[in-house]
Amino acid sequence: MNTQESRTAFHTDATDSLAATSDTLLDSPSTAEVRELERQVEGILDECFFALGQVVGMRTTLDYEAVILIRDRFRVKFLAAMTTFGNRWEQDRSNVTGVVMMLAERAVRYAEGKPSIDVEAARQAAADVERHCALHARRAARAQGLDASDPAAARIAGYWCTWP
Fold first, then answer.
1. Which one, 7, 73, 130, 153, has least CB within 10 Å?
2. Surface-to-core class of residue 156, CB atoms within 10 Å of its CB (0-12 exposed, 13-18 middle, 19+ buried)
3. pLDDT tens-place string over residues 70-118
4. Residue 114 lies in domain
5. Are 136 and 157 in contact (CB under 8 A)?
6. Residues forming beta bridges with residue 62, ordered by sequence position
7. 8 in a domain, yes or no?
8. Is 2 helix (H, G, I), strand (E, B) or coil?
9. Would you say residue 134 has pLDDT above 50?
């Protein structure tokens, strides 16, 4: 960890042992480890929504149903990725928040002419982001000579928003 980065609730020693190498995936985590990952995912989602709000700004608002859709959709994906690969939030934070910014911009665009970002605009934006992440992961895997179906290739990019 860089000494200039502060320790946060997202980085705890409880899951340090869960970190996967590029060659291995995690064994099935215990119930306690899953609960800890779930707690960490909630904090990560909070940070993602903060970034989303910064991008949307005063241009529009986000319907409650759209918030629930985004949170539920990515909560499952984040938890699956963290259960498989461990908590890599500190390493992947800038990539994930960059993708969140893309999600926000797309949602604003899809909501154009509407009073707020509704569920349909959020759904379209989420689908765009998932397609982008999947394509990016495949291109990056090919560039490194990896089979795109190899789970190790999924770690290159995109697994936060595409894993299962």
1. 7
2. buried
3. 999 999 999 988 888 888 899 889 989 999 999 999 999 999 999 999 9
4. 30-162
5. yes
6. 117
7. no
8. coil
9. yes
Q: Please provide residue 162's backbone torsions phi and psi, each rounded to the nearest 5 degrees.
A: -125, -15
Lowest mean pLDDT among 88-92, 128-132, 150-154: 150-154
**How far is residue 115's CA from residue 77's CA, in Å, rounded to a whole number?**
29
The number of domains in the chain is 1
Query: How far apart are the C-alpha atoms of 5 and 154, rounded to whole Å?
Result: 26
- pTM for the structure as a whole: 0.76
Residue 25 belongs to some domain of the structure: no
Helix or strand or coil: residue 101?
Answer: helix
| pLDDT (0 to 100) of residue 64 | 98
Query: Residue ranges of the alpha helices (H) in the chain?
Result: 31-56, 64-85, 89-110, 119-143, 151-154, 159-162
pLDDT per residue over 54-72, tens digit each?
999 999 999 999 999 999 9
Radius of gyration of the chain (CA): 16
Whether 16 is covered by a domain: the verdict is: no
Q: Taking 50 as the threshold, does the pLDDT of residue 34 lie above it? A: yes
**What contacts 5, CB < 8 A, 6 or more positions away?**
90
